[in-house]
Amino acid sequence: MVQAWYMDASADDPRRPHRAEPARPVGLEQLRRLGVLYWKLDADKYENDPELEKIRKERNYSWMDIVTISREKLPDYEEKIKMFYTEHLHLDEEIRYVLDGSGYFDVRDAEDRWIRIAMEKGDMITLPAGIYHRFTLDKQNYVKAMRLFVGEPVWTAHNRPADHVEARGQYLTFLAQRA
Ligand SMILES: [Fe+2]
């Protein structure tokens, strides 16, 4: 099952776990209330996996590709890593399925606190449109992930503050209805 926790306030190496002390773990139900969806799949059979196909069909995740994030494999690595870790939102869902390696997705809760989600092989996650978030590799410095999308992908990141975009307003409405 996915591990998630509230973060400490330290600004040092983001690739460290940054668990708050005392520990404040976060469960799937709490993530769901933020609109974050999670599935555990068998990453060894991603090429032919009825479970993955079912999710893709139900949620219209028609588009996909596979990316590797590592110093060797990703062009403009340093620049990209910095970009991924800059707090931002998108106008669409961000969907990732970790096929190998690992990394951290950080998302803001309804009170604007950081929750860190540790993603490893077999973890698939959907972040809702309009949620502020960021991504970092961990000490492994390597992840291979499937990116999925509803239709033609748009990767534009709107760095915070992006409170004026419609997706943000819609997300805040969603949170308010859940409260
Ligand atoms: Fe993003």
From TrEMBL:
Q: Which residues bind Ni(2+)?
A: 88, 90, 94, 133
Question: In what ranges is there compositional bias, type Basic and acidic residues?
Answer: 12-22
Q: How the cofactor binds, per note?
A: Binds either 1 Fe or Ni cation per monomer. Iron-binding promotes an acireductone dioxygenase reaction producing 2-keto-4-methylthiobutyrate, while nickel-binding promotes an acireductone dioxygenase reaction producing 3-(methylsulfanyl)propanoate.
Tell me the residue numbers annotated for binding Fe(2+). 88, 90, 94, 133
UniProt key word Metal-binding: yes
Q: Where found in the cell?
A: Cell membrane; Cytoplasm; Nucleus
For activity, the cofactor(s) needed are: Fe(2+); Ni(2+)
* Region Disordered, residue ranges: 1-23
Give the record's membrane topology: Peripheral membrane protein
**What's its catalytic activity?**
1,2-dihydroxy-5-(methylsulfanyl)pent-1-en-3-one + O2 = 3-(methylsulfanyl)propanoate + CO + formate + 2 H(+); 1,2-dihydroxy-5-(methylsulfanyl)pent-1-en-3-one + O2 = 4-methylsulfanyl-2-oxobutanoate + formate + 2 H(+)
* Single biological process term from Gene Ontology: L-methionine salvage from methylthioadenosine
Principal localisation: membrane
Q: What pathway is it annotated to?
A: Amino-acid biosynthesis; L-methionine biosynthesis via salvage pathway; L-methionine from S-methyl-5-thio-alpha-D-ribose 1-phosphate: step 5/6
Which CDD domains does its entry note? cupin_ARD
InterPro entries reported for this sequence = ARD, ARD_euk, RmlC-like_jellyroll, RmlC_Cupin_sf
Q: Name one GO cellular component term.
A: nucleus
Q: What is its EC number?
A: 1.13.11.53, 1.13.11.54
- GO molecular function annotation: acireductone dioxygenase (Ni2+-requiring) activity; acireductone dioxygenase [iron(II)-requiring] activity; iron ion binding; nickel cation binding
Q: Does the keyword Zinc-finger apply?
A: no
Q: Which UniProt keywords apply?
A: Amino-acid biosynthesis, Cell membrane, Cytoplasm, Dioxygenase, Iron, Membrane, Metal-binding, Methionine biosynthesis, Nickel, Nucleus, Oxidoreductase
| Protein family per UniProt | Belongs to the acireductone dioxygenase (ARD) family.
Stated role: Catalyzes 2 different reactions between oxygen and the acireductone 1,2-dihydroxy-3-keto-5-methylthiopentene (DHK-MTPene) depending upon the metal bound in the active site. Fe-containing acireductone dioxygenase (Fe-ARD) produces formate and 2-keto-4-methylthiobutyrate (KMTB), the alpha-ketoacid precursor of methionine in the methionine recycle pathway. Ni-containing acireductone dioxygenase (Ni-ARD) produces methylthiopropionate, carbon monoxide and formate, and does not lie on the methionine recycle pathway. Also down-regulates cell migration mediated by MMP14.
Quaternary assembly: Monomer. Interacts with MMP14.
- By what name is this protein known? Acireductone dioxygenase
Q: Tell me what organism the protein belongs to.
A: Myotis myotis
